[in-house]
Amino acid sequence: MNDLSEGSRVLQSDAHPENDLQRIVLVNEQIKAVVATAFSINLMALNAIFLAKRAGQAALGFGVLSNELRTFSVDLADVMKALRDMTSDSVNVVSDQVRLARTLGILSRLKAAGVARGQQAVDAAFARHAARVERDEAALRERQRKLRQVLADARQRVELGGVLARSAKIEAAYGGGFAQPLMQVSSEFDRTIQAIRGSLDALAAI
Amino acid sequence: MKTATTIYSAGDHQWLAVTRDPQRPDYLIDTNEYLVSHGEAAILCDPGGMEIFPAVFSAISEHVDPRNIQHIFASHQDPDIVSSLALWLEFNPRLKCYLSWLWASFVPHFGGDRETFIPIPDAGMKIPLGNASLEAVPAHFLHSSGNFHLYDAQARILFSGDVGAALLPPDEDDLIVKNFDTHIRHAEAFHRRWMGSDRAKRDWCERAAAMQIDMLCPQHGAIYQGEDVRRFIEWFHDLEVGQLRV
Ligand SMILES: [Fe+2]
Ligand SMILES: [Fe+2]
Questions:
Q1: Across the 246 residues of chain B, what is the mean pLDDT of every consecutive 10-residue run?
Q2: Answer CATH for B4-238 from 3.30.365.10, 3.40.50.170, 3.60.15.10, 3.40.50.300
Q3: Does A121 lie at the interface with B, CB-CB under 8 angstroms?
């Protein structure tokens, strides 16, 4: 009987798997944006490394920072890939939920209509589905928790990226004859990191 | 809820018509389901769409335990015919579904798996029901390209799927056709548009005219009985089908 009351609770709860599906699509789109930006940092960093090599002695510090930024962009892309894998898996769970919610609704109408024979089977089928909905909801909650964790991790990495970009700006000032192009590159780093920060904030808000 | 009415009963051989659902939302077409039983064996003809499953299940349960239905006969692949399949399988996972071979890999999108379907060859087949026997009669292209009707020689009943269907107004929804001429007006547009092949129609009319049919039971509308069966076959024979506009 406990299962049944759980089932009605699930049915009446304001869980809308359809909305979850829309959310996952939004998250995926936002992740794609971050991955694309992380890739552009990678290219930028490669250019910066060459530039630092050309600048030689005057841009040693800048070269080191560019290397760090390149590593950062690769790490960030990895984190985003993990995030994307998690959300694509959620699409399965949510699709299953949409289907289950419909079946559960139909079975609850059958329960309400009542049957002259087979009432136990109807109750059992309803309880079975309610339990599946519960299980899927728990799985989704767990995924969301992990997702938030990975997002927090990504946010921390981006903060580190921000520090690297700012340091690169300072190093650029000591770039002698190359100071201006180095400054240009490091400003671009900074802007890009800001953009990623914005995307991650948007992701957390979905 | 729907009403289940016994339309034929002789010994342990019975036909149950599950019809009319006052609570059905008007965006869903009304359907008839038929349960043929012989002793313990029971086959459900065109179990209907997913949304009306509670009404069908509940109405049948007034007469028999719906879990004892071992077979489904699906005249064709439409959603109003068989989209409830997954729900029926919930209550009897061993349930088997007779269906044109043409749709055997399409309908599993509604439910069921490799084990569920018994494909019917184009020429039709005998369908055992306990120690009685029914027959899947070809009705291809009327309207579906892989389409069967179910004939019961003992009861002299032909379940005719979408053939004979009528979209009845709420005040003319008798179970049995009372006045053929008034009734057939609600069938005309449906047959002109849904039935696409004139040749298939003539073939079917010849076949049906040669059969002994006391009741012609469509999946929508009312049941033709006695003389109205012959009237319907003649009317259908003369009707120009495959018309985009009436
Ligand atoms: Fe149809
Ligand atoms: Fe139909």
A1: 96 97 91 97 98 96 94 98 97 97 97 97 98 98 98 98 96 94 97 96 98 98 98 98 81
A2: 3.60.15.10
A3: yes
Name the β-bridge partners of B42.
B37
CA distance A87 to chain B (A): 25
Are B53 and A121 in contact (CB < 8 Å)?
no
β-pairing, B96-100 vs B71-73, is parallel
Are the C-beta atoms of residues B120 and B148 closer than 8 Å to each other?
A: yes
Taking CB atoms and an 8 Å cut-off, how many pairs form between chains A and B? 43
Q: What is the nearest CA distance from A111 to chain B, expressed in angstroms?
A: 8
Interface of A with B in 100-119 (CB under 8 A): 102-103, 106-107, 109-110, 112-118
Contact B84, B48 (CB under 8 A): yes
Distances (CA, A) of A27 to A17, A99, A155, A158, B82: 15, 22, 15, 18, 37
Tokens standing for residue B55: 């009404």
Domains of chain A: total: 1
Q: Is B145 exposed, middle or buried (0-12, 13-18, 19+ CB in 10 A)?
A: middle
Instruction: Quickly list H helices, chain B.
Output: 53-61, 79-82, 85-91, 180-194, 198-209, 227-238
User: Which one of the ligands is nearest to B165 CA?
Assistant: 2
Which pLDDT score is estimated for A15? 54
Which residues make beta-bridge pairs with B36?
B15, B43
Backbone angles phi, psi at B123, to 5 degrees: -75, -5
Instruction: Give me the interface pTM, i.e. the ipTM.
Output: 0.86
* Cα–Cα distance measured from residue A83 to residue B152, given in angstroms and rounded to the nearest whole number: 60
Consecutive H or E run containing B67: none
Domain that holds residue A77: 3-205
Across the interface, do B55 and A113 touch by the CB < 8 Å criterion? yes
Rounded to two decimals, the pTM is 0.84
Subunit contact A114:B58, Cβ cutoff 8 A: yes
